[in-house]
Request: fold
Amino acid sequence: MPSPREAPRKLQEALDDAVAKVNKTIERLMPETDLPEARLYEAMRYGVLNGGKRLRSFMIIQTANLFKVDENRSRRVAAALEMLHSYSLIHDDLPAMDDADLRRGKPSVHVEFDEATAILAGDALLTLSFEILSDPATHEDPRIRCELVSALAKAAGGHGMVGGQMLDLMAETEDFDLGTISRLQRMKTGKLMAFACEAGAILGRADPAHRKALMNYAHDLGAAFQVTDDVLDVEGDENTIGKPANQDDAAGKATFVSAMGKEQAKMRAEMLVQQAIRHLKPFEGARASLLKDLALYVLERRA
Amino acid sequence: MPSPREAPRKLQEALDDAVAKVNKTIERLMPETDLPEARLYEAMRYGVLNGGKRLRSFMIIQTANLFKVDENRSRRVAAALEMLHSYSLIHDDLPAMDDADLRRGKPSVHVEFDEATAILAGDALLTLSFEILSDPATHEDPRIRCELVSALAKAAGGHGMVGGQMLDLMAETEDFDLGTISRLQRMKTGKLMAFACEAGAILGRADPAHRKALMNYAHDLGAAFQVTDDVLDVEGDENTIGKPANQDDAAGKATFVSAMGKEQAKMRAEMLVQQAIRHLKPFEGARASLLKDLALYVLERRA
Reply:
């Protein structure tokens, strides 16, 4: 999301640092193989190591940082979450779903490999993310590991991300009201963002109030991010040369802009960001400043 | 697999009992919902509660029984494993994979619903199986829960079941030798069967030797099962009216029969079953007798 020329320098450095470190962890946890199933791992690596901005990783690492968690731990959890996030994109891009040939300007996994390989690569990535979380290398306390598995499964499952994708597909033919659109977005992207911050809190053995505050921050940030995404989609032609505008509208997707208009949507994003920042109150201090910067940046971004 | 008129009465009763109890547990863990994502849960329930024989559930329950584990626990693990097994069948049936319109004589999930819903239902089932295993209701000791998550993820992932499915697809265009076919089958079906027995051992806090013995039993049983499946496929027209024979051969699938001939394949199944039974030695006694009966039955079955 943030591009080098726009994000404040300190935030950008921290974002770049998260990308480099988490990619290294992913490389290590998912090495190439000489075994006959090599093609599967090529597809998995292609799908995950594709230049993603690792926003969720950044959120895990920064949140864990509030509690002075060893970064080797938060990086493993971040790698697991990026694998899960990538699986959802690989399956989302399939012909039967969004039918997207490109992802970050490169052929999507089912185009570069084939549909069957893309389905299986997604399945294997989802499975691997739980294998990593349950590994003692992630945390020596099995209670912490179980909490991570449980929280991720809830965020990513049928009443979380996958349920949100189901609603997103249904929105193409059904007229959802604003409440249902909000819930859809919260499920589809908000819950995984909330997990990112929850994971930091779990690793840091935060008390319930602090854990809840961080999840609320993430929910509001995710919602603001989604609203600004919708706004950028309709403004695409005004700001970015060559970016097709109104893609969502053309696809009949449920967006905040179509539901409440562009100006109202912008005000909503502003309100959500202020709300997100208020949730950081219990963590006032230098350690929380990057999370605050990230929230403010959501309003400024242009791509 | 076993049908009422063929399996020994005691074995059949225990198999029927496992079906009834595990289906009840699945119903409870995956209830219908009034939420907007109801369609997803309908598809998930349709895919799991489809008359499956719950062979893996039987193996978990019986193995856990060797260690006198509370059956409420083994049934939850069995439900999780059946969900995972069902997800693999739902994805396997997709047009891009095996393109199967029928499953147990009923329309497969993507036919009854649609392709996108089938992909998402599979994803949600896989995710839910890990949610169940990590739940304190499965076992109060988080170390046990983590071991279950880890063992299932390894059995089901890229070097396990999903990797085996990848190889199975590759076998349609590549000539694999007998060693690779064996490895393919071990990955595709053997590892999940081994997990069933391993799970019982984990729940029972078995020592490593007993745990290994049960996994070896399951591996050999799974392999024997696969070989007899291949034999039944070519003998289908001789024994069963209306069942299309030589399906695997027509699809260019790597089978034991195509690799070693029918008579050799039958001898191999016999040998594997005897080997499976030898692994039960440390558990001699009444409690292991049903596992022994199951192994013997694999050779007798006709469907």
